[in-house]
User: Fold this.
Amino acid sequence: MAASPVSQCLDIAEASLDVEALRQEFPTLERWTYLDVARKAPLPRCVEAATRAFFEDIYDSAGRRAFSMEAVDETRAALGDLLGVPASTLAFVKNTSEGLNLAVQSIPMQPGDNVVVGEFEHEAQIYPLRLLSEFQGVEIRVVPASEGRETPEALAARMDERTRLCAVSHVAFGNGSRIDLMALSAECRQRGVLLLSDAIQSVGMLATPLAELGPDIIVAGCHKGLLGLNGTAFLYCREDLIEALRPIFAGKYSVTSDRLAPGPVVFQIDARRFEYGNPNFLGITALGASIRMLDSIGLSAIEAHIRELTTALIAGATALGIEVRTPRDWNERAGIVSFRLPSNAKAIVDRLAAERIIVNAKDDHVRASVHFYNSHADLGRLLEALSSV
Ligand SMILES: Cc1ncc(COP(=O)(O)O)c(C=O)c1O
Assistant:
């Protein structure tokens, strides 16, 4: 069969993953070209199976496993292994917003202190900081991006002796640009500033262990690259910082002191100090299953595949005359490619959905995002559709 002009634009390299076999795990992909993991993951069968097993345990075994903290701790250990950090540095929280709120509220700050934040931050990061400003008199310094990038240099330039925190996401949800967190953390460390990062757009997709990424605190929802259910997220905190953070909430699971004991409340010495009540047992069980899947594929292979696909997508779009606003260098991007198109992006997204292609619109640009289950054929269908809008 002769290659179409669009498929000729794709630089199809040998895939190192057995993508076709992996796709069988995702029923959504039988009917949809799914390029929107930056919004939600198309859940794999193993997550459904774990969910069923959870109910079976409740029906057959009175929930002795389903509602056990041992099961939660096993998933915590598996998450730590996958992400390259000790389990003791991980707390399960409800979503990215909760984790970021908990983080910023637990860092000691005084009126007149300031926080430096990137322009590309999501509502999940901006609103917790705005509350700090409204109620605690902390100044929020929003640093504009330059040429589509938030840079360590520009962020560092706004820091001074009253800067307590720098907050920046690893990968921007809009244009998909990735910041060099290691370089930024060096700037922060030099100035005694804590670095907090929202890594929801990179976790489960990029291979660098969290402990080597740079930030002191990292928060991410598990419903994107980690292929989990909504309502599960984690907060990672550098081991030697944990005890300096005083949570604003407390409950049965976050403390070690007795309920009515005199004196101050004593928090857990590890990251569980942020887990105040019953956890999301079902969500964490499901997460255990998707972690096993990601682990069996390997984050390095996943990252390589995402890199290959996004590189091909950028090249294919450029060859078709479609403007790409995502940076080109791999170190400056991850799984998101953002396109500037002549007509309204939301209308294009709706039109593509009618053709069973799922992408998203962010600030009037079309956003496609890939994971290990995406194929070159997916990209071909997207480019074919975009070339005629
Ligand atoms: C950068 C970023 N942060 C956070 C979120 C989501 O926050 P939450 O998990 O609180 O819903 C998203 C997308 O949904 C995002 O793209």
About this structure: Residues 55 and 66 are 8 Å apart (CA to CA). The chain has 13 helices and 13 strands.
